[in-house]
């Protein structure tokens, strides 16, 4: 299932809870083993977050790159076409 920006936002918020969970664990008198377990949980959460980032953002980046390349090619074609009578006197983009 493809993720969208709302899934991405939810995943960020889920990871952000670490500060609340650390405070809660300190109140509970957590030991080093508990903190190591918490670190493992958040390592997993941040990996999921990065994967979702790639699912949501990277297609946009690739699409924008393709559009920029297409626009550059069209600009080049327009610049080359300036010598033709129909476009003579028009400014280049």
Q: Any chance you could write out the topology, listing elements then pairs?
A:
Elements: H1 5-16, H2 18-27, H3 32-56, H4 58-81
Index terms:
93 residues, mainly alpha, 76% helix, 2 domains, 0% strand
Folded structure, characterized:
It is a single chain. By secondary structure, the protein is an all-alpha fold. The protein has 2 domains: 1-56; 57-93, no CATH class. It is 76% helix and 0% strand. The chain has 4 helices and no strands. The chain has helices spanning 5-16, 18-27, 32-56, 58-81. The two termini are 41 Å apart.
Radius of gyration: 25 Å
Main beta sheet: none
- Average predicted confidence as pLDDT: 80
Q: Which percent range describes the beta-strand content?
A: under 5%
Q: What's the N-to-C terminus distance?
A: 41 Å
How many strand elements?
0
Low-confidence residue ranges: none
Helix content: over 70%
Write down the domain tally. Answer: 2
* SSE pattern, N- to C-terminal: HHHH
Number of helices: 4
Class based on secondary structure composition and strand pairing: mainly alpha
């Amino acid at each position: 299932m493809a993720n969208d920006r709302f899934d991405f936002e939810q995943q960020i918020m889920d990871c952000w809870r670490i500060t609340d969970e650390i405070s809660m664990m300190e109140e509970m008198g957590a030991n080093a083993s508990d903190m190591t377990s918490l670190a493992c949980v958040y390592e997993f959460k941040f990996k999921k977050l990065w994967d979702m980032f790639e699912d949501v953002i990277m297609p946009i980046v690739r699409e924008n790159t393709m559009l920029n390349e297409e626009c550059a090619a069209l600009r080049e074609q327009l610049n080359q076409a300036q010598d033709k009578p129909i476009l003579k006197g028009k400014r280049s983009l």
